[in-house]
Amino acid sequence: MTDVLLAVGTRKGLFVGRRRRGDWELSGPHFPAQAVYSLGIDTRRAAPRLLAGADSPHWGPSVFHSDDLGESWQEPTRPAVKYPEYTGTSLERVWQLHPAGPAAPDVVYAGTEPGGLFRSDDGGETFTMVRSLWDHPSRKHWMPGGGGLAVHTVITDPRDADAVTVAASAAGVFRSTDGGASWEPSNNGVKAVFLPDQHPEFGQCVHKIAQDPVDRDRLYLQNHWGVYRSDDAGVRWTDIGAGLPSDFGFAVASHPHAANTAYLFPITADIDRVPAGHRCRVYRTTNAGAGWEPLTHGLPDEDHYGTVLRDALCVDDTDPAGVYFGNRNGEVYASADDGESWRQLASHLPDVLCVRAAAVT
Length: 361
Known about the structure:
- By secondary structure, this protein is an all-beta fold.
- It has one domain: 7 Propeller (Methylamine Dehydrogenase, Chain H), CATH 2.130.10.10.
- About 0% of the residues lie in helices and about 40% in strands.
- The protein has 1 helix and 28 strands.
- About 50% of the residues are buried.
């Protein structure tokens, strides 16, 4: 069985898991008492680089990296992510750390609050703000979602280093085809149920986007009410929420190898924000959203209240695929067989904010 690195960011530190020959070990916390809101595992290097966006209550947010699978950590002597003075603002949080594709081997993107995108050309050690998104004409109308005004999703196309898609809560989806020189809203078909005009050009509260591993123009989107699919890289979106117990949720992940396969964790909303039906269930589609099936074997079958946040559901790149999620009860679950069966890896951790996994040697 392939060895796997699992990183679990929580409200009070980072926990690092290793699967060796089928057995799991969990260490931590790293960054004790710091909230870890974002993680990235960069496997493009000879040695995988683990990136962590940690938020110290005293020193504020920063980006750390480790080249020895979490044994030691480095932090730049100057702030890795810093808003330019002309913006009149400062960094509140790093919500996303995304290593770009093989066409841009040293590029890492950081999505931040308040509503910024930063680019690193040295593997995540230093970042520069992508000014074109900050200066977008629509920006003055962007409104914060419940978690703040955050660029929380970055998707890059392995076929084209200049194709970048971002999602911000609550501004919607924006696409660039010229390496970030310009951006266009890409929300056609996505509802904003909380606005008088439910189909605005921008202003949707998008929670997460995932990209199909085979058809790279196919995207899956979990919205604040609504699950959608795009077959043209985000130009148009189609509702695929039929068959789910709730089309509200935070997380979505796509299978690393199989086309048309994605995973969700439905949530009851807007008031409760707990698992739909009070059941701990991951839902999977294998036909691009034409139908959904609950995956429950090995998960709790009693009433359950552990909410899964937008970056707390992920897959690794093994075959069969590993699927992982953590919740606000401090539990972490893993499947080694595409989600068919589950086991609990950890319990009683602090509030789980994000989870990342990758095969390692």
